[in-house]
Amino acid sequence: MRRHASSPSLGARLRSLGIPLAVGLLAAYVIIHSPARRLAASVLGRTTGACYFCQSWVPPLDVLNSLSALALLVLVVLGAWSIAAIFDGVDYERPLVFSLTALALLSVPASIIGGLAALVGVPLLRPPLGPLLSALPATLVVIAACRRGWRPHLRNPHIPRSPIVRLTLLLACGLLLSSALVGALHPPTGWDPLSYHAPVAVFFWRDGDLSSFLGRAPDYAAWAHPGTAELFFGSLRLVGGERLANLGQLPFAIAGAFAVAAFARRLGLRTAAAILAGSLFLLAPLVVGQIQQQLNDVAAAALLMTTVSLAAAPRPAWTFPRLALLGLALGLMTAMKLVLIPSVVALGLIVIVRAWQRSAHNPRRLLTHLLLVGAVFFIVVAPWWTRN
Fold first, then answer.
1. CA 35, chain centre distance (Å)
2. Which of 259, 274, 361, 383 has the smallest CB count inside 10 Å?
3. CB neighbours (10 Å) of residue 289?
4. Contact, 285 vs 235, CB < 8 A?
5. How far is Cα 310 from Cα 68, in angstroms, rounded to an integer?
């Protein structure tokens, strides 16, 4: 006859809690008595610091700023990863969805918080609080995805055996790595990075809002341009300093390669040809030369190509999530670089025509789709238009 294992007695459970309870009581003693240290020192006629347990283990403010910015970037990556995993498109569109939503999860909350900070006169965007507040939407997305059973999962990349494809991809990776090393080992150079992009990336997070620095140079119109890319550069600078911020366009270059490959697949090319096309994009001199500088030309080009690739889907693929993504993409293009506004108008017309073709028989549904695109677009651009 099998014997059932008896459950631990109450005494054994209490004994197992002895050490944690003692540690907790010791921590409570330190926390409770440290505010009274100044009072006890005054009674004894001595001087003391304000907080004896804070001075030894609490990291300096720069470390806290870096940790908060790192938490923001990690949560943004996880949130975008979870959204891309549930996107109802084809597999080669998932990297596009990831890059688009990652940029949005970082820049849109940060710009809204920075805009509100400018209105109320409180530096809400200043770290360590600013990055943590900006990470709240990404945190909610990750929590919702985990509750639905999502877990991070990497797929094994399939690289065709074609020698020309592998050689081109290897050359592209080598050039990107070489350019990134140059950017990581040298300070920023060039007129635009030093006079516009890099300073604005600092001002957003240091001043804690979107507009305080404009009062210091009201005649310098470039500083009033939208700063989606600069918000990202500034978060990288908080994590790893100016050298890491120099590499802010590297993720956009990779996103642009995925966009070229996705557009090639949409045109009917096979996987090998699509990978070759994306690799050739990475070999472009403008791409290789700019990924080591705090500029936004490669970032703007990658965002434009991502939007075009998502808009090139056939009519049955124009679902509600795709329309929301396209509204988000159009808003990010507007808030990235003003030279993209003509492309925003053209792509916006394509979105309107596609929505009409999809829902012409149902006016209420058509109106809902157009309002969705317009609302998402307005949420993205509102902080910058309101500021200016």
1. 40
2. 361
3. 14
4. no
5. 33
Enter the pTM of the model: 0.83
Distances (CA, A) of 291 to 190, 258, 275, 286, 369: 13, 16, 20, 9, 37
Under 8 Å between Cβ of 303 and 336: yes
Q: Which of 335, 375, 327 is nearest to 210 (CA)?
A: 335
CA distance 95 to 306: 9
The Cα 358–Cα 388 span in angstroms is 36
What are the C-alpha distances in Å from 360 to residues 325, 369, 370?
Answer: 21, 11, 12
Contacts of 26 (CB under 8 A, 6+ apart): none
The set of residues, in sequence order, having a beta carbon less than 8 Å from that of 67 and lying 6+ positions away, is: 59, 128
Residue 179: closest CA among 248, 236, 235, 240: 248
∠ CA 258-288-299, rounded to 5°: 55
> How far is residue 241 from each of residues 51, 62, 192, 249, 354, measured CA to CA in Å?
30, 11, 19, 15, 44
DSSP designation for 147: H
The predicted pLDDT at position 361 comes to: 86
Is residue 380 within 8 A of residue 328, CB to CB? The reply is: yes
Query: Is the Cβ–Cβ distance between 38 and 48 less than 8 Å?
Result: yes
352/318 Cα distance (integer angstroms): 11
- Compute the distance between CA of residue 154 and CA of residue 164 in angstroms, rounded to an integer: 26
pLDDT averaged per 10 residues, the chain (length 388): 50 61 64 54 54 48 89 96 94 96 98 95 94 97 94 84 94 94 82 89 95 84 90 95 92 97 96 95 93 94 97 92 96 96 96 90 91 97 93
Q: Give all strands (DSSP E) within 66-119, no chain letters.
A: none
In the block, tokens 């030093």 appear at 194
